[in-house]
Amino acid sequence: MAFIRKRKVGKEEIEVMDGVFNRLYSYIEPYRGRFVWAVVFGALAGVVNGLLIFLLKSVFTIVLPGESGKAVPTHFRPFEDVPLEAFQKIQIPRPQLPPEKEWIFVTVICLSVPLILAARGLFTYLHQYLMLWLNNKVLFQLRDECFTSIIRQPLSFFGEVKQGELMHSVATQTRASADAGIQLLSAWIKHPISIVSILIACFAMDWLYTLGAFIVFPICILPVAMIARKVRKAGGREEVESEGLMVTMQESFDGIRLVKAHAREDFQRERFNRGSRHLLEWLMRWRKAMEISTPMVETVASLGISIGLVYAWMTKMEPGKFMVLNMAMVSIYPHAKALSRLHLQLQRCAVSASRVFGYIDREPEVKDRDDAVDLKTIDGPFELDDVHFSYDGDSEVIKGLSLTFEPGKKYALVGRSGSGKSTILSLMMRFYDPQSGAIKLSGRDIREFTQESLRDQIGLVSQDTFLFHDSIRSNIRYGRLDATDEEVEAAAKMARADEFIETLPEGFDTMLGDKGQNLSGGQKQRLSIARAILRNAPILFLDEAMASQDTELEKEVQKEIDELAKGKTVVAIAHRLSTILDSDEIIVMKKGRVEDRGPHSELVTRCPEYKRLYDLQFQVEG
Q1: SS3 30
Q2: Most buried residue, 21, 38, 360, 442, by CB count within 10 Å?
Q3: Phi and psi at residue 512, in whole multiples of 5°?
Q4: Does residue 440 have a pLDDT over 90?
Q5: In angstroms, rounded to a whole number, what is the distance separating the alpha carbons of residues 179 and 173?
């Protein structure tokens, strides 16, 4: 039974690998013409290897004629052993030259060798160039599909997967998949044809010698079969350790402030080195398994040469013929060696490609319907109708919530941490879909609209401000990509960001460090506010928009936000209640439900939860 199970697993592995490589090669389909030419040039390079053997035999016959008493032929047929009549008829007349000028003819004949080698080199170059071109096309497509699929996953996906693993897959595993796939394809085109053409030449010249020298060739496969399992295991573990190392680096660099604040540089260094050691250990195992195949194959192949030497001695073979046959056998070795490693490369490629295709094929939980339409105008309220939502499918964060946000009004969501305030904004932006209930805009379920058009109608200012490693101008323009420089600068002025931008050496063209680390928290948030101002969407979400502002600046920026908010539907989350006291309606959240709602003047007198938050905050501020 154990044997049967083992065979079954092996069959499944073969099916998986077949599927992986069939899919890899499907990326070549749009470039079929170049692929056909690559095959043609690869085949020609392989065929020339066999023709070279016949040519060498004729050259050696002329240069090393053998017995001195033998009559000198008047014509030479360099391809007389080729099993094709058209080639057999090719003959070169021997010119009548005096003995002292015989070297001219010999030199011309010998120069035919580099000429045919040049032809083989040209075919090989054209084959490799076209395969490299195809490799780059496949790599570009793989990276595009992998990155696009990942970036379109919902926020929950990025909470489950480590960013370092994602970066490793997009940057490294796509290249490993494309490189190995194209290299394997190239090898299957060129090497078998080269081996077959050389063998045909050898069998045509002396079939018994070739058979004796080559009878042990199938045994060369045994070393590869013996170490295939070790290579598969080592290759898979190397990919895992490489991902772990990428994760450690990404976390160390992203959390550099925390690392330095706790003086954990040595701790992170040890984590990195531990991962690096494990990676190198498995890489060493993989390389050892790969490299041990070479001497094992060489040892087995040498048996064939030994048999050939004995045969040449017994049959008194001519030196020229013996040299050509041995050169042919030696020329087979690089091709046989390359083929012997294909299975090992195939195992490693399958690991990388399976991970890449896993990401490509992953269907996002939140996606556009086939019949989704663009949302162009808003002429009605934003509504949550009996919405239930859970992040883990178990404990509900939002419990039967029904809310209506009328156009042109300002709403505020308040409550303790974990009450569901930020989740409401995430659901309204369709970062997640509720388990039950509906979220509507202008009377229609937001799932009827494309995600892009829905979010185009929403401006967001969050306490978690992210800035790209780019210029200040480009970071603000991210809110509306077609904005002019004048519009960008006007938005910055409204957000009071121009005050610090003008002090920078290059102004709006100043390059920000990674995540804007060379700016203060308040400065970064003002750039985020400028983005929202530039976007000028009809719906505005403010998630702790003033969290990083000092009290004096807060009042100035709040005025500009109030100006921006005119005529818009505004939903604000604020722990600092002073920023939302003028809201048309304040919604008090508690454990995923609405505790109470109304203007500040009413809630402060009738809602204990709101009164507690208000008293606690203003007592602290007082």
Answers
A1: helix
A2: 38
A3: -85, 150
A4: yes
A5: 10
- Enumerate long-range contacts of 473-478, CB under 8 Å, 24 or more apart: 473/508, 473/509, 475/512, 475/516, 475/527, 475/531, 476/508, 476/527, 476/530, 476/531, 476/534, 477/534, 478/531
Number of DSSP helices (H) and strands (E) in the chain, helices first: 22, 12
pTM (whole model) above 0.85: no
Sign of CA dihedral 313, 319, 323, 329: negative
* CA–CA–CA angle 274, 277, 278 (5° rounding): 90
pLDDT at 258: 64
pLDDT of 620 reads: 46
Element (H, E) at 586: strand 585-590
C-alpha triplet 290, 296, 300: angle, nearest 5°? 145
Mean pLDDT, rounded, for 433-447: 92
Dist. CA 148–CA 144, nearest whole Å: 6
Residue 594, beta-bridge partner list: 589
Place of tokens 């993989």: 286
Write b or e for each residue in 314-348: b if 16 or more Cβ atoms lie within 10 A of its Cβ, otherwise e: eeebbebbbebbbbbbebbeebbbbbbbbbbbbbb
CA distance 532 to 547: 16
**Whole-number pLDDT of residue 6:** 34
What is the distance between the terminal CA atoms of the chain, rounded to a whole angstrom?
78
In DSSP terms, 444 is beta-bridged to: 441
181-226 pLDDT, tens per residue?
A: 777 777 778 888 888 888 887 787 777 777 766 665 566 556 655 6
How far is 426 from 433, CA to CA, in rounded Å? 9
d(Cα 367, Cα 433) in Å, to the nearest integer? 9
Residue 514 CA, chain-centre distance (Å), reads 22
- pLDDT of 143 over the 50 cut: yes
Amino acid letter for position 317: M
124-138 pLDDT, tens digit per residue, is 899 889 988 988 898
- Measured CA to CA, the distance from residue 35 to residue 201 in angstroms comes to 28
Contact assessment for residue 209 and residue 308, using Cβ atoms and an 8 Å cutoff: yes
* Stretch 570-574: mean pLDDT: 88
SS (H, E, C) 238-302: HHHHHHHHHHHHHHHHHCHHHHHHCCCHHHHHHHHHHHHHHHHHHHHHHHHHHHHHHHHHHHHHH
More confident residue, 216 or 507: 507
Structure tokens at 401: 């919530």
CA atoms within 13 A on the CB side of 175: 5
* CB burial string 106-145: b at 16+ within 10 A, e below: eeebeebeeeeeeebeebbebbbebbeebbebbbeebbeb
Q: Give pLDDT tens digits for 244-277.
A: 777 777 667 666 666 666 567 777 778 778 777 8
> Looking at residue 515, what is its pLDDT?
64
